[in-house]
## 1
Amino acid sequence: MTRVPAVADRFYPGDPEQLRSALAMFVPEVAEEDKQPALAVVLPHAGYVYSGATAGATISRVKVPETVVILGPNHHGRGAPLALGTEDWRMPLGTVVIDRQLAASILDQSGNIVEDSQAHLLEHSLEVQVPFFQQVQPRLRIVPLVVAHLSYQQCQAVARELAAALSAYQHPALLAASTDMSHYESRQQASRKDQLAIERVLALDPEGLYRTVIGQDISMCGVIPTTITLLTALELGATKAELVRYTDSGEATGDTAQVVGYAGLIIS
């Protein structure tokens, strides 16, 4: 069984040649020796016309290993709260296989994460990231994890489980948290709120991020995947975070009265 694309020709081109052209525009060419090793990235997941440049600029700066663990929010409410997909993904640029060794290790380590394909069927937050990773890593394998709302204590437990599985894994792997920032607020309001959340990521403060997003009513849809990713990266030895780019949908539409914010960050 393979997962078929849910949002090709909507969020990104479904035609392979058009998709390659789009990715060539969005992902700057960076010499391999100029790329940095990283434990994790935070990437936006809107349509490529809106957030593709931010995602591409971020991915281009990182040495992407063959295995990427992608965590994204559950926009549809289908499936388990922590749903790991184990079906290969048929994508316009070719099939992407699941890293079954790492996926099995995560499922063995975790009392929270379960195997569940239902949560992935319609979810776009992970799918839109895959072509970017294919662009820079032709031997890409993924471990896709769709995440519903969790308490901070649950985020901590899941992060410990992920870190244990990744520590036992004998190969490099990159964590990728998929999130957009504020939704449908004025540019001024969105930028102010999003800066509060971004500051907590830059401070490597996952609890501060979680509390700030909830306390300041920031409509950051992937706050849970980002919190888990930051916690996991810290367990694996993260010492710094860097903002590559922040923008909003008004850059593409010209409408600054109702924007969605996008941020690309690197955690190393």
## 2
Amino acid sequence: MRHVHASQALLDAQRHAFDAAPYPSLATRRDRLTRLATLTRRHRDEIAAAISADVGHRAEMETRVAEVATVLQGARFTRRKLRRWMRPRRRPVGWRLLPARAKVHYQPLGVIGIISPANYPWSLAWLPAIDALAAGNRVMIKPSENTPATSALMARLAARYFAPEELCVVEGDAEVARHFSALPFDHLLFTGSATIGREVSRAAAANLTPVTLELGGKSPALVATDADLEKAAERIAFGKWLNAGRTCIAPDYVMVEASRLEAFLKAMQRQVARFYPEGTASRDYSSVPGPEHRKRLEYQLHEARNHGCRIIDLGERLELPDGGAKLPPTLVVDPSDALAIMREEIFGPWLPVLGVRDMNAAIARVQAGHRPLALYAFTEDAALRQRLLEQTHSGGVVFNDTLWHNAVPALPFGGIGESGSGAYHGEAGFQRFSHARAVFIQSRRSPVGWLTPPYRRWLLRMLGL
């Protein structure tokens, strides 16, 4: 209960501070972004150690690339572009209203709440904070209760580099998270599962708080007839087994034409052996934390095995001294849609590989399912690419690779349908956490007085009204 009251007090303090300075200058916003980047850059070793302690083992290079570098790049890009984003945008008024003028003025919303997940506990807290601070807001972050070491480090560093009325981190368990989502923020961003996302939306709805949901889903990878199988296998293997598959935009299943299925499976085995020559014992392969999460994954694989699916283990399970475990990369060949591994987002190191008749069948399968957070297609066929862009829906599309659209700060990142709502990153994030305020400036020489009663029909005819 003490944490619950503390959250409300922090919100009140931030709102009071915002009301006293509702439109921070460019210099103030840039200073906040600089401090956020410094906080990450100076303490990158502590960040890597804390995340690894929370999950059992996280490959240090994965933390450097996916957590530290993305935050530094996002802050640098936003700081450089911010002057232009803040500038009011002129809009045409139409000849009938000339010489009046119109523009859009981007106004800070107020206090932004951010609920971040456990899989990328640093970057998925600070990346939306970058956008919120750039837009001139105050920020409260509730990190996952499943990453206590990282959350504690985040709270300690936030208190060192920011005043609590600028930005603060609220630690606590699931009860604190539920109360946090019910606070009357001016905008709330949640990253996590669709199940919890629904609960967050219901809690926020009581205050009419706008919500951005970054969820997940089953992101497909399509390997077309003209694709280079070795290159496709290399890029899919990287995207799938980064962070042991615990990436919301990881390829969740692969569709390849049945005539090339066996060749693709062999290519995948070669790439995994190249990436992790010591198997799961490699320091470059991360662990899967949490007994409940591992139990769910083990059930998926057990059910698929019992239903006669061919299972190709690409390593051995490795138990860690702290009770965690590394689950090996595993291919599951042609599982049926009725199995849990095809109904649920996997969020782990299992990869279903399905043989399909052709790309028409693959596209039909994508269209029939929930709209994914990402869609990956390996092809040089321009017509097929255009068809995928026009006939399928997903949060993002990547051709001939995986994941890297998330590393482009100028691209919006977000889902659609079951995979989320709203987008952030870069200018899309600046606009997400701003109010686009319509401004109309009437001229002293305006002719609109002619349009007041008594109405002149000849004038209405002349104006085409």
## 3
Amino acid sequence: MLDPRRRGRESMSFDQEWAELKAKAAMRLDGAPDMDPGGPSPGGADLIVKADDMGKIGHAAFLLHQHLSSAGKHAQSHTEAAAKSLENDGFDMGAALAKAGEGWQGQLQVLLDACAQISNHLDYSVKSSKQDDQFVAAEMQVSKISEYLDVPSSTSDSDAPLVPKAEGPVM
């Protein structure tokens, strides 16, 4: 049984059905409150993210990771030496300085992990987006090609292999 919501769409082309669905979505979005304080974006797109922009942000996160990695540990050996010297001289300040140094290194590691995660996630997002785009493009091409094919049913009584027949323009 056909889905009642799809009645009348059997004879629609993909482009017609896609245009109808986009129009319905646009009508629903027109009634939604505007959440963008900067106003609508160019071309009516809700979100525009270019791979170049993500690459720049990822590269900045990578550079920050490198800089923090070296600069954040710059005083570690001096802090440890001062803490040990103060402890050896009987000052309670030595243990407190050692504890502060450990806290600093812990927080530094959190920042380094965050920078690495940002950089890695943006690299993954760019690659994943490209793969998704390639998949959608391939699917769209297949749907266009299938318009020209007449595929016989698989319940054919013949032992002959099923071969699609071209209906559209043949080169």
## 4
Amino acid sequence: MARDGTTRSLDNIDLASLRDPAGIFELVEVVGNGTYGQVYKGRHVKTGQLAAIKVMDVTEEEEDEIKLEINMLRSYSHHRNIATYYGAFVRKSPAGQDDQLWLVMEYCGAGSVTDLVKKTKGNSLKEDWIAYICREVLRGLLHLHSHHVIHRDIKGQNVLLTENAEVKLVDFGVSAQLDRTIGRRNTFIGTPYWMAPEVIACDENADSTYDYRSDLWSLGITALEMAEGAPRLRGSCRLWRAAW
């Protein structure tokens, strides 16, 4: 069973049977950090095509979480607003050391929304850019929510841009599959500044629950991040007052 009680069967994913990436993909440079590992700019050895490669240790404690992320990517990444999943590989390590999992995905050469904000004069994007990015993120979320999936970590760092200004959601390390009948979660997980109040409440009250709408709150905080340069607790308070 995965960290947050996910009951989906992951037995059909055999990490030991995955191919070694040697001779197929190579790492070029570190470009960021994912939920459970570093993200590299990588290259397909034969074609030279660039890819984003998340590298993480395969530990017994996190094996189910790793399988869950692979399952999420291969099931739901076929959408224009989600970075395409290319495949998973395992690099074997010497005895006594953890093997490395390589998750290979579409490379978004323009970086994250957070990077864009930091590089923009005044640390603030124009309103039409904010509207465009929010619209594209909403399209990606609609795809996920229609399949009963909550992303649970929407923030500027997890919204990437291609060189053609396409908007792509990434990092499904803490995503969750909702039960089709109940449709709610009760796990405190995500990034606090962007976290919806009902998710925060789960840290103190075991009876608290939330659903896919928590992603919409996180997108609202991301919009404030794009407009003001940072998520800021006062942004959360402002949205809280509007919501309640």
